[in-house]
């Protein structure tokens, strides 16, 4: 029974991805494109050479982190739509420290990363606090906090970090995650050491949730607040903690962009979408750490590969969004896939 | 013979289990027919089949002699079958009227619900059968007893001729049970027929005409109640002899463990429900709190356990002041608590049984070291408790949700008792359980007493209170109004005390 | 019918790219590409104009998209670099980055790929193999400011900016300077939407401005401007007699202003990115790539003009006054301010 | 004061109308127990269809085009929401997951088809959007007339009327009683003979219809064209309005109007000399801060329908 379950657990996402890609092929055919050419371009765009592989990894990095941010909150029964805002403030804080402080790398870089995580955590703290103490729904507060993050960050960039400019100076090299060595072996892609941080963060999430008393409490509160209270857990504290840790993961995603990919922060005229994509990554990854890493990678591959599709095959990049959406549907509807699989197995006997 | 309903050779399977295996039950017109069986025997399943919620794999259902196919509750309604479910099917934010008319609402010209007509009809029905309800009250604001009357009205409103009651008395106070029995009798007088599921043999003996017994999904047979007795029914059901009278030695009370002085507690609506209560429980004794639901028992227990704040007064546990400490601090001071609502408070249903076993102790050695959990220790412990307390579960890794109520309750008791608490509070510990399970739990409580724990038993079952307690404290209107010895009192006397009739005299004795 | 046309165009695009992927393009051909910012190639603004320039050049030289010239669309900030690099690896000789948002990426790419030539539009980069193309938007804004001042009856005009940034401040300063040059008493209401894509905000601002008596609004706000046009047209629809105007930006936005028999687009500040782009392509093809330089296209270089399409609104009178000021700018008599500080000094000098 | 109102109220109404409509859709869906994070996607679909239909058929329908366009958008929105319905009702999908997928799918399809059909990332502007009008008779009511009935989009009134209709339907009719019952306690509804799945399907389709309408109204009153940035966050604001309004149609309308008012005030304030010294950023974040303050201050705890987000699987507990 359990081995059967594990098998299904693996089969369902794989089948979903396959159906999603098939559906994408049908859409390409219907709109007059050549699906083989389209997918060849997608493949080349994601894995074509060392450069694209580097870029794919770079793109995956923040997606894993925002996926973790959303997944972590979900574990405690909270819906963190605010990863977007947490990314932005994390990015700002990391770059700020990267610019403002003069220190050797061994201090500067960790400090900048920590600043990003803390800023994101702070942005998660308020919705957590309001939820825990006043019962205000975290979904609205986090949506509002996204807009506040956007506008406040822009204001800080303009009036504090620069003199009315739209982009800051580049951060000090002592705070940079970028690696000339990694870049040189990937034809100057923007791959940076952030992927290690993302993977480490996934490990941390797994460890907290599955192996520590903190995780035990967080999950318990997510499942049943009354019973958790009865058992002597501090429900409010756990709600806040969950939002703070989730926020910190998202803040880290921002730090990856600020310290790794760009080395700067610019005035934004809209959201980065990293946070919103994080929701999809978390859900596709079934809210567990390994799942999030794999889902983040899938997202990264599809999104990076999509860039090659218009030039090489004339297919609009949005095809990939359609495919991803369909994959999510199929995974979400795993009930029906399981049902079909069971039918299939019975038929065999 | 004139049968209202016949269920013949019904078979119903769930994945991996046969819940009903070739069961036959025939309901005569105008009778109250008991359906008896252990927890998980398949009673609810059988009735859900009759009500159209489940489709049987095999068998035939006849209504007034005609074979029918009931594949959804609408058809059951049309055939005049109504069911009062084990877990109430009421929409909490709705009013009584809304709940009753839901699904067959009277309308006026503008497509608007015609509340006036509905209210009138409900009033008429409730007058006719003596079902006192307030049509405009919200479900969330009325007592469990009234909720049940609403359920009955729902079936009558739909013109039910046959009523199924699935464990209606498990959640009622003795007074309410009395009222329900009256209602059932008046239903019969009006020509209805009733199937009654209950674990309380006394009730079967009191009101039922015949009784069908099932065991582990199989039909054992049907007997005339007038030709049998409780112990025969019990052994039919369990398949062995059952002891009714709990055997125990006289209590050896020692030091005071729980001391409550002049306690005041407010409820969610900010009204004092505990009003200057004094209570002592000593080690080695079981004190039963008898009282009608709503007289402050819940608030008292919540205040002692730290789930609610005491407005004033003191609570001491083994000479330590625990007033308004956090639940964790109180638990650590030596409290064990079997909560009234096992699904809401007792268990995290989505955690495995093993994880539930350490719900209060996960952060202590050996279950965790430096905040890191040791699943080996956790599941090891869980396996021991499962064996010792006879919790029937496929494994310790099974989710608590998948266990039957009785087994969930055994797991909770195992968990609470295993910590060897100085004070064990058991609230309604046997609600909804079959006689076998009840026997087991009572035995465990007494064992624990004999090991030197102080035990506070809160129950609406006078039987249970009288059987298990060494001393009975009667609670009325937020105070303990009398302390009596179980062997020196009767149910009648207790009933009067609980109704507050001897407040002044009892007030003297309680000092 | 329009849909059909577009469809067939798409088909030809596809086919041409089919050939393009064959990889075997002769290396002696000069290949030019551009990377859009998130506005996209058909943003009715500088991306579109730049693409028209490149396409015009390509078609003149008998090339097809994918064979000798191409563009890459960026959907988000993260796309810029991969898009640039893709063209580098496909051996394009000259790669344009359109918009100040691509500044850092063009800078980095220029350093990483010294054998490829780059150009950034609307900002400056510092590399010997990269040229910076800027426009004197302040000049054009000055001219439309003059037109606005001539047109207004209420002596209240408005400016709607996209995101508050040095670039948009250039528009704002020039516009105010132009208006005040005609009439120092004129009031200019300035609001920023903080987005280039928030039509609702644009409409809110425009409603507020027109209600408070503003009768000419100059917008430099991308799709946010849709809301401005929308509001102007709505008022016009209800009250055809009411005189109110929008001044377009970057391209001629005459089409956006059409409402029944009227057109609310007074004029547009036109930025000829196509001219600049073609100019740079020609230079570099002839081996005179202006690497390391900063080219500024203004009125003099035909990089900045204003539109006179709306003949009804842009009367002879207005045109001739605008042209007078244009002359003054050309002969150096007027130095158009580019920042708010410069604007203040300029206003004092009036 | 009077003039200020006369200028603010109409802006509040046009800004809020799409949010009201979409939020009403959200209320229907969530009242029936189906969480709808996909409101954003439904709006995208509505905006896309509204614009494309308008551009394509303007020659045929003339000045009726915007009206027929919103009907088309409602129809497509309804069909599109079926995906969410099938996934979350029949296939027991996690409703949040399905909603997120709806959002991605709608934007993907909208922009993909725009590119395939028009060969570019955004459509042209429509020639026949909605225009404001004065409401006959009512506009002449002293004081009230000029504020509420002059220069108003009819669609704004439709939104407000539909909010009252939704209130009537949900709280006064048998249909509404059943729909709410299904969202609170589906098994109770089931035992009363109500078809839980069918009620939920209807509710989700209503949310698709209203979301499509909301998106189309936004496109045809405010944006005038369709691109990837036409609907950015309005659906999430509508979701916020659903929760802010405590899952009540009139509450959701109030919340949407509150958002509109806050936005309008932030624009108006920057023109008021007294407030001119306030940093721009404060005005920009004011609408969002006000919402948080309102929730924390006096709106407080909101209880979602009890069965919201839980698939109903017959015969399970
Ligand atoms: N929904 C279900 N899915 C799977 N199995 C079920 C389901 N409901 C009941 N069962 C199985 O059917 C058996 C009978 O359950 P049922 O609820 O009818 O017992 P019961 O006699 O009503 O018990 P109780 O006295 O506790 O109410 C159970 O042991 C269980 O294994
Ligand atoms: N969804 C389900 N899947 C599998 N088994 C189930 C399910 N629901 C109920 N059961 C089984 O049905 C049996 C009886 O369940 P039920 O909840 O009726 O127990 P109970 O003792 O009556 O509890 P309660 O205290 O709720 O009355 C249990 O053995 C349980 O395993
Ligand atoms: Mg049962
Ligand atoms: Mg039971």
UniProtKB/TrEMBL annotation, chain A:
Keywords: Cell membrane, Membrane, Transmembrane, Transmembrane helix
Residues passing through the membrane, by range: 7-30, 87-104, 111-130, 136-157, 191-209, 239-262, 274-302, 322-341
InterPro entries per UniProt: ABC_transp_permease
Membrane-protein topology: Multi-pass membrane protein
Compartments reported by the entry: Cell membrane
A Pfam family matched in the record: BPD_transp_2
Protein name, per record: ABC transporter permease
Organism whose genome encodes this protein: Gracilibacillus xinjiangensis
TrEMBL record, chain B:
Alphabetically ordered keywords of this record: ATP-binding, Nucleotide-binding
GO MF terms held by the record: ATP binding
SUPFAM superfamilies: P-loop containing nucleoside triphosphate hydrolases (SSF52540)
Highest rank taxon of the organism: Bacteria
Pfam family, one: ABC_tran
Keyword Transport: no
Keyword ATP-binding: yes
Residue intervals of the ABC transporter domain: 5-241, 258-502
Name under which the protein is recorded: ABC transporter ATP-binding protein
Species, as recorded: Gracilibacillus xinjiangensis
Lineage of source species: Bacteria, Bacillati, Bacillota, Bacilli, Bacillales
UniProtKB/TrEMBL annotation, chain D:
Topological category with respect to the lipid bilayer: Multi-pass membrane protein
Signal peptide: none
Keywords, ordered alphabetically: Cell membrane, Membrane, Transmembrane, Transmembrane helix
Transmembrane segments: 12-29, 41-61, 67-93, 100-118, 147-170, 201-220, 226-244, 256-275, 281-300
Pfam families the UniProt entry points to: BPD_transp_2
Subcellular location: Cell membrane
Predominant cellular place of this UniProt entry's protein: membrane
Record-linked PANTHER family: GUANOSINE ABC TRANSPORTER PERMEASE PROTEIN NUPQ (PTHR43370:SF1), SUGAR ABC TRANSPORTER INTEGRAL MEMBRANE PROTEIN-RELATED (PTHR43370)
Protein name per Swiss-Prot or TrEMBL: ABC transporter permease
Species per Swiss-Prot/TrEMBL record: Gracilibacillus xinjiangensis
């Amino acid at each position: 029974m359990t081995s059967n379950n594990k098998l299904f657990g693996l089969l369902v996402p794989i089948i979903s991805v396959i159906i999603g890609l098939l559906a994408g092929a049908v859409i390409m055919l219907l709109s007059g494109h050549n699906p083989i050419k389209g997918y060849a371009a997608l493949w080349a765009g994601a894995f074509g050479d060392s450069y694209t592989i580097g870029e794919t990894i770079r793109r995956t990095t923040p997606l894993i982190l925002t996926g973790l941010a959303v997944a972590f909150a979900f574990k405690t029964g909270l819906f963190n739509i605010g990863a977007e805002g947490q990314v932005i403030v994390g990015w700002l804080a990391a770059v700020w420290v990267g610019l403002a402080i003069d220190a050797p790398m061994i201090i500067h870089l960790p400090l900048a990363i920590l600043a990003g995580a803390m800023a994101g955590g702070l942005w998660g703290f308020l919705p957590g606090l309001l939820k825990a103490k006043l019962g205000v729904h975290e979904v609205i507060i986090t949506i509002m906090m996204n807009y506040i993050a956007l506008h406040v960050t822009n204001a800080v960039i303009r009036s504090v970090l620069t003199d009315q400019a739209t982009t800051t100076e580049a951060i000090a090299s002592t705070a940079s995650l970028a690696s000339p060595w990694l870049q040189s072996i990937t034809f100057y892609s923007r791959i940076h050491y952030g992927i290690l941080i993302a993977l480490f963060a996934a490990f941390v999430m797994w460890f907290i949730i599955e192996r520590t008393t903190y995780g035990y409490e967080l999950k318990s509160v997510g499942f049943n607040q009354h019973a958790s209270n009865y058992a002597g857990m501090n429900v409010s504290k756990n709600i806040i903690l969950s939002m703070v840790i989730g926020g910190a993961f998202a803040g880290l995603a921002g730090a990856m962009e600020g310290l790794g990919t760009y080395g700067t922060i610019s005035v934004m005229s809209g959201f980065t979408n990293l946070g919103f994509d994080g929701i999809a990554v978390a859900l596709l990854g079934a809210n567990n750490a390994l799942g999030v890493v794999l889902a983040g990678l899938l997202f990264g591959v599809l999104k990076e590969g999509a860039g090659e599709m218009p030039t090489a095959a004339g297919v609009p990049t949005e095809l990939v969004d359609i495919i991803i959406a369909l994959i999510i549907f199929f995974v979400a509807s795993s009930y029906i896939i399981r049902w079909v699989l069971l039918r299939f197995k019975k038929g065999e006997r | 013979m004139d049968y209202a309903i016949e269920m013949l050779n019904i078979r119903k399977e769930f994945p991996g289990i046969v819940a009903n295996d070739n069961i036959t039950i025939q309901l005569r017109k105008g009778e109250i027919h008991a359906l008896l069986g252990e927890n998980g025997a398949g009673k609810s399943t059988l009735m859900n089949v009759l009500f159209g919620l489940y489709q049987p794999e095999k068998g035939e259902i006849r209504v007034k002699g005609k074979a029918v196919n009931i594949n959804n509750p609408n058809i059951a309604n049309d055939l005049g079958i109504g069911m009062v479910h084990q877990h109430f099917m009421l929409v909490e934010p709705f009013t009584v009227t809304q709940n009753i008319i839901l699904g067959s609402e009277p309308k006026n010209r503008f497509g608007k619900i015609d509340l006036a007509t509905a209210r009138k009809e409900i009033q008429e029905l409730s007058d006719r059968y003596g079902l006192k309800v307030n049509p405009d009250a919200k479900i969330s604001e009325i007592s469990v007893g009234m909720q049940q009357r609403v359920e009955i009205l729902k079936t009558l409103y739909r013109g039910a001729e046959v009523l199924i009651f699935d464990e209606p008395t498990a959640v009622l106070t003795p007074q309410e049970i009395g009222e329900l029995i009256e209602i059932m009798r008046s239903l019969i007088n009006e020509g209805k027929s009733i199937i009654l599921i209950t674990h309380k043999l006394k009730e079967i003996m009191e009101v039922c005409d015949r009784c069908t017994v099932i065991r582990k999904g199989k039909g054992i047979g049907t007997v005339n109640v007038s030709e049998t007795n409780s112990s025969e029914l019990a052994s039919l059901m369990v398949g062995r002899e059952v002891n009714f009278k709990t055997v125990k030695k006289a209590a050896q009370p020692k030091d005071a463990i729980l001391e409550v002085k002049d306690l005041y507690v407010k409820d969610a609506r900010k009204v004092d429900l505990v009003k200057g209560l004094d209570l002592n429980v000593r080690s080695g004794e079981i004190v039963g709190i008898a009282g009608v639901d709503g007289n402050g028992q819940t608030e008292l227990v919540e205040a002692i356990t730290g789930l609610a704040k005491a407005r004033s007064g003191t609570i001491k546990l083994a000479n330590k002041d625990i007033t308004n400490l956090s639940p964790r601090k109180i638990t650590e001071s030596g409290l064990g608590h079997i909560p009234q609502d096992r699904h809401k408070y007792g268990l995290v249903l989505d955690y495995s049984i093993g994880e539930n076993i350490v719900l209060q102790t996960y952060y202590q050695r050996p279950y965790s070291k430096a905040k890191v959990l040791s699943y080996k220790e956790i599941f090891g412990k869980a396996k021991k408790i499962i064996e010792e307390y006879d919790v029937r579960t496929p494994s310790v890794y099974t989710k608590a949700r998948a266990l039957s109520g009785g087994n969930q309750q055994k797991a909770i008791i195992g968990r609470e008792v295993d910590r060897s608490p100085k004070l064990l509070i058991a609230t309604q510990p046997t609600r909804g359980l079959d006689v076998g399970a009840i026997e087991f739990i009572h035995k465990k409580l007494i064992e624990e007493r004999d090991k030197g724990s102080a035990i506070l038993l809160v129950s609406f079952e006078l039987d249970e209170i009288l059987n298990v307690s060494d001393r009975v404290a009667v609670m009325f209107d937020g105070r303990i109004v009398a302390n009596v010895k179980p062997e020196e009192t009767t149910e009648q006397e207790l009933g009067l005390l609980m109704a507050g009739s001897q407040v002044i005299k009892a007030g003297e004795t309680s000092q | 019918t329009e849909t059909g046309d577009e469809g067939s165009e798409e088909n030809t695009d596809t086919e041409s790219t089919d050939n393009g992927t064959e990889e075997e393009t002769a290396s002696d051909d000069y290949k030019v590409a551009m990377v859009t910012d998130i506005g996209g190639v058909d943003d009715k603004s500088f991306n579109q104009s730049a693409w028209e320039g490149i396409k015009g050049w390509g078609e003149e030289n008998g090339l097809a998209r994918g064979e000798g010239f191409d563009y890459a669309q960026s959907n988000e900030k993260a796309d810029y670099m991969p898009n640039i690099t893709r063209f580098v690896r496909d051996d394009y000789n000259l790669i344009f980055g359109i918009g100040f948002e691509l500044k850092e990426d063009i800078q980095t790419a220029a350093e990483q790929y010294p054998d490829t030539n780059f150009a950034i539009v609307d900002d400056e980069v510092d590399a010997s193999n990269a040229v910076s193309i800027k426009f004197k938007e302040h000049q054009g804004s000055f001219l439309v400011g003059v037109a606005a001042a001539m047109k207004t009856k209420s002596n209240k005009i408005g400016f709607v900016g996209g995101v508050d940034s040095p670039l948009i401040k250039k528009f704002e300063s020039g516009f105010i300077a132009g208006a005040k040059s005609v009439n120092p008493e004129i009031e200019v209401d300035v609001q920023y939407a903080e987005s280039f894509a928030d039509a609702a905000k644009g409409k809110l601002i425009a409603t507020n401005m027109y209600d408070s008596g503003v009768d000419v609004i100059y917008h430099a706000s991308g799709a946010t401007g849709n809301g401005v046009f929308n509001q102007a047209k709505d008022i016009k629809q209800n009250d055809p007699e009411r005189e109110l105007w929008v001044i377009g930006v970057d391209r001629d936005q005459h089409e956006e202003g059409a409402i029944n028999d009227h057109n609310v687009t007074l004029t547009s500040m036109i930025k000829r990115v196509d001219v600049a782009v073609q100019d740079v392509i020609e230079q570099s093809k002839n081996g005179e790539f202006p690497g390391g330089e900063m080219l500024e296209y203004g009125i003099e270089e035909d990089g900045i003009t204003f539109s006179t399409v709306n003949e009804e609104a842009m009367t002879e009178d207005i045109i001739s006054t605008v042209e007078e000021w244009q002359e003054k700018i050309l002969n150096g008599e007027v130095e158009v301010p580019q920042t708010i500080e410069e604007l203040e000094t300029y206003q004092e000098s009036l | 004061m009077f003039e200020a109102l006369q200028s603010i109220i109409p802006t509040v109404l046009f800004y809020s109308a799409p949010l009201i409509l979409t939020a009403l859709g959200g209320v229907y869906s969530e009242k029936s127990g189906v969480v709808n994070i996909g409101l954003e996607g439904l709006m995208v679909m509505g905006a896309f269809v509204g614009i494309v239909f308008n551009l394509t058929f303007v020659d045929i329908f003339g000045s009726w085009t915007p009206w027929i366009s919103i009907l088309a958008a409602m129809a497509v929105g309804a069909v599109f929401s079926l995906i969410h319905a099938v996934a979350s009702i029949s296939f027991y999908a996690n409703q949040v997951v399905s909603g997120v997928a709806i959002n991605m799918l709608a934007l993907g399809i909208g922009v993909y088809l725009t590119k395939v059909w028009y060969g570019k990332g955004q459509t042209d502007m429509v020639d026949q959007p909605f225009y404001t009008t004065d409401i006959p008779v009512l506009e002449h009511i002293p004081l009230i007339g000029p504020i509420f009935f002059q220069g108003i989009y009819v669609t704004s009134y439709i939104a407000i009327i539909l909010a009252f209709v939704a209130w009537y339907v949900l709280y006064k009719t048998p249909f509404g009683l059943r729909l709410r019952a299904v969202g609170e306690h589906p098994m109770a509804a089931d035992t009363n003979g109500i078809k839980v799945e069918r009620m939920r399907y209807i509710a989700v389709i209503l949310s698709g219809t209203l979301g499509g309408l909301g998106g189309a109204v936004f496109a045809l009153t405010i944006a005038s064209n369709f691109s990837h940035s036409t609907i950015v966050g309005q659906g999430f604001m509508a979701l916020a309005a659903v929760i802010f309004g405590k899952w009540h149609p009139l509450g959701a309308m109030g919340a949407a109007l509150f958002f509109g008012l806050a936005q309008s005030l932030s624009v108006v304030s920057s023109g008021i000399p007294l407030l001119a010294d306030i940093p721009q950023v404060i005005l920009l974040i004011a609408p969002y801060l006000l919402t948080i303050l309102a929730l924390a201050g006096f709106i407080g705890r909101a209880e979602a329908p009890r069965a919201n987000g839980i698939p109903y699987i017959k015969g399970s507990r």
